[in-house]
Specification:
CATH topology: Mannitol-specific EII, Chain A
Number of domains: 1
Distance between the termini: 9 Å
Number of helices: 5
Largest sheet: 5 strands, mixed
CATH architecture: 3-Layer(aba) Sandwich
Strand content: 15-25%
Structural class: alpha/beta
Length: about 150
Amino acid sequence: MFFKSKKKEEKKSNELLKKENIKVGCKEDTQENVIRAVGQMLVDSGYVDAPYVEAMLEREKSFSTFMGNGLALPHGIEAAKKEIKASGIAVMTFPEGTAWGDQKAQIVIGIAGVGEEHLQILSVIADKMLAPEVAEQLIQGDVDTVYNILGGNE
């Protein structure tokens, strides 16, 4: 239940993951274009201001956000924290993989976390990805499957 608002009285718009922020079955693209696309979803949902997308690209230049197991977790540099309006994530899946440096990413999750929340978000995603069957469900699943897994419903 991590990816739900902590306060029950908060509106649904404060969810960390919205179905419109899940794109499945994506075709391979450049790493920069993928980061821009996942970042734009965060912007369009009101989680971040537009400069955060550039900060995500800057982070990737300093070190890769590829985590292994086909997972990349692009997020902004520390200086971009002021661009985050609310914690949120956006997901793109690439069943055939997409180039991520020397690796192939199959799941790309853009992250914006207020304060230290990004560490908790990273931890929860990493825990879920430890199970190969869950990772495969995310890679091959439809929007509802991805939403249910990362939304804490499975």
